[in-house]
Every structure is written in C-alpha cells, then in structure tokens.
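Project outcomes to date are best conveyed with an example. Our students and postdoctoral researchers have been running inverse folding experiments weekly, and each run begins with a structure described purely in tokens. The record below, which covers 506 residues, was selected by the lab manager from last quarter's runs and is presented without edits.
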C-alpha cells in the first residue's frame, strides 16, 4: 500500500532516512510551504526565501530522480504540515507517513498527534546519534564539549595521526584569538544570482512577509546542493587559511571576515557536514591551510554542532523555558533595528537585518552578552535568535542561546557565563573607536554600557558565581574597587536600564 514520505524544509538531502525507507516506485513524497512553519516566529525574509527556493529545487531534483512529489506552495493555502499530509493521504489512500525526525520538539509532537500515523526515523545526517550522545553523557558530573569532541575526532579519524591528534594537541583555540586585522583579503561568501524559481519565491516572500524584520533583497544565497558546494570550495580556497587567526575578530565594515557562511546550507541539508570537514582536512594535508585554522573549523562542526544537537535532545522540550538567573526584562526595540548609540550592537543588528547572518562572536559577545548583562528574559532572546538567522532551528539555536549565551540552563552547556565589559569588544574589534560611548569609562552617562552592566551583573549574581574558580578573579577585582566608585557604577547600570525599559534610545 502506498505510503507518504514527508520532507521538511531543513531536510533537503537525498540521503534522508525517510527517503531510504520508502519505495520510489510506490510511495509519494510530500513537501509543503505552510504558514505554521513560516510564522511560528517572525522569520527573517531571507530565511523564508532561502528555504522555499531550496525546497522547490529539491522537489524538482526528486522528481527528476523518479519520485512522485506532491508539492504545495504557500499560496495553495495549507496551514500546517499535518494538513498537507492529510490532504495527500485523502487523495492517495495512504495510511502511513514515513518521516525523518524533525529538529524541533514542536514539530515532533505535531507529527506524533497526526491523525495519519507518522513513523519518525532517526536523522542520521548527523555524526552522533541521540543514543550515542546520551551514553557518552551518562554518569558524567559535568558535560564538557572538549571531551565529546575528542571522541568525535577518534570516531571520524579527522585530523588524527594514528590514535593521536594531528600536531600533538587536540585544540588550537589558544592561537585563534587575534584581534581584528587592518585589512581582510577575503572578499566574503560566494554570491549567487537568483534564477527564475528563486525570483518567484522572492516575489512571494515580498508580498506575504513584508512586515518581518530583515532585508530581502539583494538575495545571493545558494539554493541547491551544487551552489552550497561551490560556496564551501570558495571558503576553503580563499578564507580557510586565516579562519583560525581571526575567528573571534569583529570589524565594522566587514561582516564576514574569514568565516565560512555555510551554516544555513549544512542545517538545511544542502551540504553534508562530512564534505565540509573532509575539504578542510584536505586543504591542511595539501599545505594550503594551517592546523590552527583547520582544527578550529572542524571542531565547530564535529564538536560544537554535534554537541548542541545532543544537548537539545537530551534536555527535552522544556529546555527553551529554563531561566535559572530569573531574568525578566523585555527584549529592547534595538534588537529589531531601533536606534542605539552602541556601535557594536548597531553593527551586529544591521548585519543581522541585511544578511540574516552574524558571525559567532557577534552572536555571543555582542548581542548575546548584552542581553545577558541587561537581564533580558532568555525565552525572548531565544525567539529573536530563532527568527533572525538563516541557519536557525531550535535544535542548534536553543543550546547556543539558552545554554551557551544566556546561561539560562545553569551551566549545562558552559561552565561559566560568557560575559564581558567593553574592553573585550574593544580588543577584538574596531567598533569602540567610532562609538558614541567611551569604552574606558565605567560610570557616567557617556561610559560604555557594557562596563557598568558587567559589574552590575556580577554583583547581582554574586551568590551563584563567586565560588566559580573561573570567575573568582573578576570578583576580586570588583572587591578591590572603592565603595563610592562601585556605587556610581551600579547607579549608571540602573539609569541605563531604566532608560532602555522606558523605550528611550540607548
Ligand atoms: P563558521 O565560523 O565558519 O563555522 C563553521 C561551521 O561550524 C558553521 O557553519 C556551523 O555549522 C558550525 N558551528 C560553529 N559554531 C557552532 C556552534 N556554536 N553551534 C553549532 N554549530 C556551530 N549556529 C547555527 O547553525 N544556528 C543557530 O541558530 C545558531 N545560533 C547561535 C546563537 C548564539 C547566541 C550563538 C553564540 C551561536 C549560534 N550559532 C548558531 C553558532 C554559530 O554562531 C554559527 O553556526 C556560525 O556563526 C555560522 O556562521 P558560519 O557558517 O560562518 O560559521
Ligand atoms: C523554517 C521553515 C519555514 C520558514 N517554512 C517551512 C515550510 O513552509 N515548510 C517546511 O516543511 N519547513 C519549513 N521550515 C523548516 C521547519 O520549520 C523545520 O523543519 C522544523 O522547524 C524542524 O526543524
């Protein structure tokens, strides 16, 4: 009897488990652009356009490969994935759906509740299954990415010299913290011209999502596997050699530096993680890129990316609602593009608005750091990140935001909060040179807000963090400051937050 095969917008891979389980000569693939997925957060228009264009092209590839595909465009009006499945089940008489496990609990439970039974197969496009991750995590007092990562190196053989790490060390992160360079030799990610299919999608998104935060055009993402591969090759050839050195740097006039800008392709299924890692390792073996760059790049993919997946599925659906620090402030309008005098924030938000992209240090040490220091409700922060980045799906976004960035999970992802004052941003970027605030000042209304907010954060959460050995030095510094200065700093933080809460431009 005919079965349906569900392919979601971030499952655009011919090697998908649901496709492998199906019979091309009998079964029907269902793909649908639906309002429920397009609006559960106000996605960036570029993210929606990227996915719809890539979905349409993947459907065409499946048809060319002999599959019977029922594809619904947004204008055909199915509100949800399940309603599309029900319609095709009605037409074909199918009584069962084959699916690959979605990357969000929300969709998993919608499929579990579907009136047509859905069999969800593991998503084995990842390196580490949930079972393997849980077995690794079981019985450990603290989970640390570094130890997980070493196991993934051994498992894949990537950058291994027998049973030892290439070059004698597992991790070259220490070499990857150079401040912003004066000149960037890489011209940025490969740009793709919109073809007819992408053009139609751009018109649709322009008409239907005009009010969403984010600039739709110019649109230059790849929207198929060949394009994603070309984008990877371009990165490996042009940027990888310097990727490590400047991984943490930020520049006002350069949004991409030496980053790969491939996360949206990997996460949507257009680019297998293994291809990216193999290409990077080959560049190292050929003498084209140094070890610190290649190890850093591979660590992000088989280390952090897989670790985040494992944490998301291990922690369960309530993870997004964790808030151990009890932060309740509303996300300020500056995250949606309202004016701010903070150059680092306006630069990161402008990149986000225009590109549906910001690189890791902008996400972590600028927008994430500010939200944490300002005590913003982590759920609101989570929804913002899920909406505005082209690579954002809950399985990867939530552990990065709730865990790594907001410490709302109490230390499952990171052993200490990623917080800093303006000095860090000044060291790693050129933003402070042209900022209206003064990075060297801590109190007073012209002082960099990150400074006062940083000390106020430490002061507020003293009980939780003072005993953390990695934070003790910060508390010693705070305790050495004289009381009058401390009081001025705390007042500066309060005044700033009050102004922000009143909706005034900060
Ligand atoms: P590169 O710096 O070139 O890194 C190479 C690849 O490594 C990336 O393409 C990505 O696949 C992987 N990678 C790097 N860091 C991480 C990480 N921490 N977690 C998972 N994968 C990683 N990444 C997402 O893919 N989706 C998200 O929704 C997302 N949200 C984030 C939110 C916050 C607050 C933070 C701090 C990080 C987030 N990241 C997210 C991780 C990281 O910022 C992005 O993967 C990276 O910026 C993508 O740009 P790139 O492709 O140029 O990455
Ligand atoms: C993100 C997204 C968007 C914007 N639209 C669709 C869609 O219309 N149809 C679809 O199948 N998938 C879409 N997606 C991706 C899903 O939201 C994603 O598959 C789930 O969140 C699970 O990761």
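After processing, the design step wrote out the following sequence:
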């Amino acid at each position: 009897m005919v079965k349906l095969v569900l392919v979601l917008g971030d499952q655009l891979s011919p090697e998908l488990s649901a496709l492998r389980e199906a019979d091309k000569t009998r079964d029907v693939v269902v793909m649908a652009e639906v309002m429920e997925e397009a609006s559960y957060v106000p996605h960036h228009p570029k993210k929606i356009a990227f996915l719809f264009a890539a979905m349409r092209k993947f459907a065409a590839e499946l048809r060319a490969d002999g599959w019977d595909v029922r594809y619904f465009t947004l204008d055909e009006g199915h509100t949800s994935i399940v309603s599309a499945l029900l319609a095709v089940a009605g037409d074909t008489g199918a009584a069962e759906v084959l699916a690959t496990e979605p990357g969000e609990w929300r969709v998993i439970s919608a499929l579990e509740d579907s009136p047509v039974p859905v069999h969800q197969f593991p998503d084995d496009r990842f390196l580490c299954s949930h079972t393997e991750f849980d077995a690794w995590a079981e019985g450990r007092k603290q989970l640390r990415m570094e130890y997980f990562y070493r196991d993934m190196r051994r498992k894949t053989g990537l950058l291994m010299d027998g049973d030892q790490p290439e070059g004698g060390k597992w991790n070259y992160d220490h070499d990857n913290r150079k401040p912003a360079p004066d000149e960037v030799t890489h011209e940025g990610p490969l740009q793709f011209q919109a073809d007819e299919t992408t053009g139609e999608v751009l018109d649709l998104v322009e008409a239907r999502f005009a009010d969403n935060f984010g600039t739709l055009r110019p649109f230059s993402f790849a929207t198929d596997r060949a394009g994603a591969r070309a984008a990877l090759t371009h990165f490996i050839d042009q940027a990888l050699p310097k990727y490590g050195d400047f991984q943490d740097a930020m520049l006002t006039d350069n949004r991409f530096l030496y980053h790969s800008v491939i996360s949206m392709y990997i996460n949507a299924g257009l680019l297998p993680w293994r291809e990216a890692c193999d290409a990077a390792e080959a560049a190292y073996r050929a003498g084209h890129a140094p070890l610190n760059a290649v190890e850093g790049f591979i660590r992000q993919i088989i280390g952090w990316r897989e670790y985040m997946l494992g944490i998301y599925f291990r922690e369960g659906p309530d993870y997004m609602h964790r808030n151990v620090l009890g932060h309740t402030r509303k996300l300020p309008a500056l995250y949606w593009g309202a004016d701010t005098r903070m150059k680092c924030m306006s630069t990161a938000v402008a990149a986000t608005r225009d590109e549906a992209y910001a690189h890791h240090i902008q996400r972590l040490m600028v927008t994430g750091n500010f939200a944490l220091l300002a005590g913003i409700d982590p759920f609101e922060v989570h929804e913002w990140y899920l909406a505005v980045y082209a690579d954002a799906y809950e399985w990867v976004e939530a552990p990065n935001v709730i865990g790594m960035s907001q410490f709302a999970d109490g230390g499952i992802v990171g052993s200490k909060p990623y917080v800093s004052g303006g000095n860090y941003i000044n060291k790693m970027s050129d933003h402070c040179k042209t900022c209206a605030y003064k990075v060297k000042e801590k109190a007073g209304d012209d002082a960099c807000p990150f400074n006062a907010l940083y000390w106020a954060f430490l002061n507020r959460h003293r009980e939780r963090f003072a005993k953390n050995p990695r934070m003790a030095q910060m508390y010693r510094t705070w305790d050495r400051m004289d009381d009058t200065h401390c009081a001025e700093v705390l007042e500066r933080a309060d005044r700033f937050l009050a102004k922000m809460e009143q909706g005034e431009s900060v």
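The two ends are 63 Å apart (CA to CA). The chain is about 50% helix and 5% strand. The training component of this project remains on track.
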